[in-house]
Amino acid sequence: METQSKILVWYKVATQKIVLGEARFPRKKELTSLWINTPTEPAVFGHPGYGISLIGDDGREIADKAISMITADMLLIDDNQARVTS
Question: How far apart are CA 79 and CA 16, in angstroms?
Fold first, then answer.
């Protein structure tokens, strides 16, 4: 059975999380590695910012952490899309 777990990238405004998309990675086996190795940013309570959430097979949020805008961009952009061909 294939896992339905995923990592969502979001931006928080006040109490609302606006989902920007799902993190891209080549294989589902890399989900745990991606979660562990994603650098975190110090979160300032009540301030807007980027973050990621680990979503389990049942659709519930397992954990979240604050990240930088650059990290959010890197997680959302597919490596194949980022390459420029001439």
Answer: 29
